[in-house]
Amino acid sequence: MIRIVTDTTAALPDGWAARHNIPVVPQVIIFEDQEYLEMVDMDRDTFMARLVAAKTLPSTAAPAPAAFEAVYRPLVAAGDTILSIHPSAEISGTVRGATVAAQAFPGAAIHILDTRTIGGPLARLVMLAARLAAQGQSTAAILAQLQALIPRQRLYFLVDTLEYLQKGGRIGGAAALLGSLLQLKPILGLIAGRVEGIERQRTHRRVLERLQQLVVAEAASGDAAQLSIMHAGAGQQAAALAASLREALATDDILITDLVPAIVTHAGPGALAVGFFTTEES
């Protein structure tokens, strides 16, 4: 049997992983030297309340290899093939931890996939893998379809401030925007697995409009876009953006999710993101 494994940065819809029997390895949130397992010891609401009140920003850590070993061990014992699907190694040590853990099981069929993305597009790839496995497709066929989609995924996002990305060490190429923003609002993107600055606008209204324009221009039409809208305490903006994109792209297949603490730690409260897939020709 093929078993899918992922981690909490996929921000899968509540209850979906449990219904599909998919283990989700938690990321680690660190507040003042105290570690918490994401979505186990600390949920989104508790995290957001603490983040807003904190004098010192939290940090994150990828799951240790031991956390993956604990998940892999019973699956290996059952003779299962494991497909472990995780965020970009450019912004997270999760793939590294999973790879080290796999080495504890010589000869086991464990495949680690770096999706070069995070959040909604990662969730979409996990959900596709689960669907294909349920259909009885082979590991090679599933991996081939996922790898074909990875270059076609896009993730654009807005942040209220670059402070969280800078202090968390995830700012990447967007560092060029530091010191030059003044009152300008940036659109950021995850390009080749790395955070990059896309462009800047002068008002919040204009940056939202421009974000929508970028998505409409680049996304596949209809349900092939596999839209996902993610936010950190910006539910009304997320719902409004979803309504606009639903009409513009003629799709009802839109995931709307709250960003998990490990992502909010680096993006900050108020973050708003859109993930989607382009056409094959893009």
H and E string: EHEEEHEHEHEHHEHEEHEHEHE
User: Tell me, what's the shape?
Assistant: globular
- What does the radius of gyration come to? 18 Å
Structural class: alpha/beta
Helix content: 25-40%
Short description:
The chain has 282 residues and is an alpha/beta fold. The chain is 37% helix and 24% strand.
Brief descriptors of the model:
37% helix, Rossmann fold, 10 helices, 2 domains, 4-stranded parallel beta sheet, 13 strands, 282 residues, 24% strand, alpha/beta, single chain, Hypothetical Protein Tm841, Chain: A,domain 3, 6-stranded mixed beta sheet, globular
Question: What can you see in these coordinates?
Answer:
This protein is α/β, with parallel strands linked by helices and 282 residues long. It folds into 2 domains: 2-150, 3-Layer(aba) Sandwich (Rossmann fold), CATH 3.40.50; 152-277, Hypothetical Protein Tm841, Chain: A,domain 3 (2-Layer Sandwich), CATH 3.30.1180.10. It has 10 helices and 13 strands. It has helices at residues 16-19, 44-53, 65-77, 94-102, 120-134, 139-149, 163-167, 204-218, 235-249, 261-267; strands at 2-7, 24-25, 28-31, 34-37, 59-61, 81-86, 110-114, 153-158, 185-191, 194-201, 227-231, 254-258, 272-277. The strands form 3 sheets. A 6-stranded mixed sheet has the order 10-9-8-13-11-12, sandwiched between helices. It is globular.
